[in-house]
Here is the input.
Amino acid sequence: MGDRAAKPLACRHADDAPLPAGGGGVVGQARNDRELAAALAAGDHEALAELYDRYSGLAYGVAVRVLGDPGRAEDAVQEAFLNVWKRSGGFDPERGSLRTWLLASVRNRSIDLLRGRGAHERQEQELRPESVESASWSDPWREVALSLERNAVREALANLPIEQRHVVELAYFGGYSQQEIAQMTRVPLGTVKGRIRLALEKMDSYLRGRGLVDA
Amino acid sequence: MPDHDELSSQVGPWVLGALDAAEAAEMELHVQGCSTCQVEAARLRGVVNALPLAVDEVQPPARLRARVLAAAVASGSPDRVDAGRRARQERIARPRLWAGLPRLRRAPAPAAAAALLVILLAGIAIGALAGRQSAPTPPSQVARYQLTGHGQLAGARATVIDLRADGVVLVDFSGLPALQVGKVYEVWLINSKGQADPATVFVPDTNGDKVVLVSRPLAGYREMAVTTEVGPDGVQAPTQQPELYGNLA
Here is the structure.
């Protein structure tokens, strides 16, 4: 599982990253996720715009990955942001980050749309979207922390044996059940269960070693 | 009835969303009463919550931002949640992948607040906004329809996005010619008898683009059409044949 001696990141989540104290310069007025959630709950549309600017690239990336269709991905992202907006009054930062909530909502909306358009209709081709690097970050510290976090997650996935990685991706990004995965891959159901368990255990160990998973 | 060992082996697949509906319901019930599995689920949920970060960012089309903000305005203010109720809910394990996320009780959104928020989104043409409320976890119900331009509007097009769960209809226009002074584009909803009801009016931006909200539900209408009419409020019946239109089915 890669370099377990690597030092934990300075903070657990980019979206919880504290702003640099004094002399932060360009960081200025960016709100952290807790402040943003409180503003959303108060009905502040500027907060929604800020949330969108901060996470739309990630959200759209997840939706495109699941749906393989940019148009449908827009719908999923829109629904997810609207869901967060409508339900922001119930957000509890102690139970998870705003980003986690938003991205889970995007994933679930995307899976719902995928299922809604037919029995596991899939787009197999790899999309090659434009301008991956052009997200509009206003907070360089958050950008660096998020980049480190994302690299760790990718490493954790990449370090899995391919059959374990495959089942995780089919379930999470493809919306397939373990039963369907067993049928698709012609592997016994018990083996699929075992691969999922092992994959999550290894990723947990890897990410926990870097202080990157929610307790 | 599966025993604990069997069910506990399903915690990972459950958190990952890899159980079918019946299995997931069974697991949810089990986890609610099993502290061991609650701890295990919470631990593995941290991994699952991190999985979206493995995906490359993709910059969405610029118009999506306007759509999201417009939809928020149309849907009214965020629902409010009772703190005591939330505390009780939090003692219960959460199903599905959005476990760990807020749950709300339904509450009406004041129309006045929605109207005030419209001001923040100047430039987005909006019809009358009624207070709306949505189900706590609405299923995805999005319908899209295309409007195609003809004649002088041959270069124009629009996508109608019907967010049924939230009672919001957006229309994303592009390629519209600039209007003469004093004119507006008027959107019509046409029923099965061919009767046209006015939906909203708007003026596109300098690029010929606009995201507008339609205050009427689309149920009962078979077509949407656009004409050029006298501004600023448009007219009650179209004065010309539409050159941008499409079916709502």
In short: The two ends of chain A are 21 Å apart (CA to CA). Chain A touches chain B through 92 residues (CB under 8 Å).
